[in-house]
Amino acid sequence: MLFQIERIIVWPLDNHQERNEVTFKMNAVNVITGASRTGKSAICGLIDYCMGSRECSIPVGVVRDNASWYGIVAHTSEGRILFARRNPRGKEKTSVECRIIPIASDSDIPKSIQEDPNRENTDDVVEKLSRLAGITDIGRDDGNPRSNDDGHLSFRDIAHMLFQVQDIMTSRYMLFYKLHVSFSRDKLRDWFNFIIGAETLLEVLKRKEVRALRLKLETLQDNYARAKNAANAFLSSIRDKMVEAVKFGLCPPDGLPEGQDELIALATKIAQDGGDIQTNASAETLKAYRKEIRALRKQNEQLDSEIRRVNKEMSEFESLIENLNLYNSATATKKERLQIAKWMRLNWCDVGECTASGKEGHDRAVAELDRICSIVQRCEDAAAATSTVNPQDISEYQNLKRRSEELIDALRKNEQQIKALQSTQVSVQSVKMNQLIGEIRQVIATAEHIKEHEGIYRQIAEVRAQLDAAAKECDEGAIRARAKDWIEAIQRAALERLGSLDCEDEYRRNPPLFDKNEMNLSVVDSHGTRHNLSEVGSASNWVSMHIAFSCAFQEFFSKMKTPSSCVPNFMVFDQPSQVYFPVTSTPKQGEGYDDVLKQLDDVKLSNDDRESVRKIFLTLARSTTSNDASWQAIVLEHAGDDVYGGIDGIVERANWHRGGALIPKSWYDKSDGEGTAS
């Protein structure tokens, strides 16, 4: 895609000030060098912002505080075009207001831009850039749930490959710009074969059709499984109902038909004929009867429990009376058998002989015997005493007996009432039969879905046929083979560029490998073992890999003829020499960060480091001027011309070490003409 940056422009807030510009040369390495805080790193964000990025990654501070608009003039297949975008103001995080202006001559570049929300916006910019890339209206709408734009390929997806900012160039985990968002990474991966020309637009559309058909097939298969399960459940339910119908005599007792259609026909007939079975009560009346029967049965349960309790108490009282009678009978028997006192009185003599000892001359023998008989008599009387039942207990027993009779009578009446409700008001048999017929009717009402799975099965067959036909027109195996060939060509070109970069020797023997799924790199060591770039040490290796693959991709895209590449033929590199500048990451005691940044301006590279950085510029220059390759590199650097001077293809476009910045100091400091920018 012919798209190179001719110039970048910053318009001041103060319209009395002149806009600031930096111009670039086509098909060359353009260098902007300068000290820290002169605005070099803001240029990456500025170009990306003017090309329709969602967010504004231009650093806050001097640049954002003193600019009104930013712009780039691009050299395209449709001529020179200015893409300008308003600077966010106030608490705005970004702005969507843009301008797209064809430029026939430099006089067409406006000195200032007036705000007009009704003019172009970022969507217009992205659409214009997509049209220049030849990818307008290319999308797949494959129903991917992760897609918030239906998988549509736009220029913004390609822009990931155009910027090597500081944290990306020294990253061992990420190769491309802003691919930390999984959706962006997935989308670029999904379209990568098309981007490198391994599949044509027709193949993309066919692949869209294939994926849509596969998704439709999966949906139909899921629906078929559900419909089949529903059909099986229907047949099981209707067979259960028909077994009950046999018990009620609603269908012949000689067995149910085995066939599905015959079974449904029989159930349908029962549902239709069952309309002649009527009851003497409405549905509400039946409901009331059932409720009353349940209440009476609950009362019967309570009555039965109370009867058992009363009968138990009566049984205990009757047992007590029986035990008392037995006791009294035993006592009477003992009384008849004893009568010792009586016997003693009858058998003593009056002659003074002691009845007990038989001795004579006991002058008080009679008196003593009488006293003993009296004592024995009292003991016999006590032993012969009987127990009687308390009159109050007898009264309680009579109450219990009456209560039992009342409870039994109430229970009998409830049973009679239940029987009356069941027999005279409604036939339970009829109710159950009508309920069964109603259930059969409900099941039959869903019979129209019984063969739904058969229709889905036919649809599955049709979609499979369509899928087979579309797959033949979209040879995914051939696409994968072409993609493999093209990626291997890019890997070989990257290996060639590594030959002139500061990379360890063991990684120069085999081509580094590009992993399309991970959108990252891996290397092969001297033992032939593959390692992810994240496993490789030394930032100089990471930077070399990024530079080599950036060159390889741009060379590959530049050589694409049919179809032509949709990737712009320019790239921006932000301070590739950063790993060679030994600057302390944290300030020493008493130093501020400004002091640390000032150290960078005073650092002089060692001869080895200077040579390593020079290799980066040499590699970029050779790549941009190689045979059949025509692309533009913009390098934002701290290193000066003492590093890159004298290399063919290197053009210094601004040297802010000697004064000047992206934002002239005169814009915000009236005491000086020029100065710094963040």
How are the SSEs ordered, and which strands pair?
Blueprint: E1 3-12, E2 20-23, E3 29-33, H1 42-50, H2 62-66, E4 67-76, E5 79-86, E6 98-103, H3 122-133, H4 155-158, E7 163-164, H5 166-169, H6 182-195, H7 201-247, H8 260-273, H9 283-337, H10 340-347, H11 365-383, H12 391-425, H13 428-445, H14 452-473, H15 476-498, E8 513-515, E9 520-524, E10 530-532, H16 539-559, E11 570-574, H17 593-602, H18 607-624, E12 632-637, H19 641-644, E13 650-655
Parallel strand pairs: 3-12, 3-13, 7-11, 11-12
Antiparallel strand pairs: 1-2, 1-4, 4-5, 5-6, 8-9, 9-10
Helix pairs in contact: 7-8, 7-13, 7-14, 8-13, 9-12, 10-11, 15-16, 16-18
Brief account:
With 678 residues, this protein is an alpha/beta fold. The protein has 19 helices and 13 strands.
What does this structure look like?
- The protein has 678 residues and is an alpha/beta fold.
- It has three domains: 293 residues, Rossmann fold, CATH 3.40.50; 123 residues; 143 residues.
- Helices cover 50% and strands 11% of the residues.
- It is built from 19 helices and 13 strands.
- It has a five-stranded antiparallel β-sheet. Strands 7-11-12-3-13 form a five-stranded parallel β-sheet.
- Strand 4 and strand 5 form a beta hairpin.
- Helix 7 packs across helix 8, helix 8 packs across helix 13 and helix 16 runs parallel beside helix 18.
- It starts with a strand and ends in a 23-residue tail after the last strand.
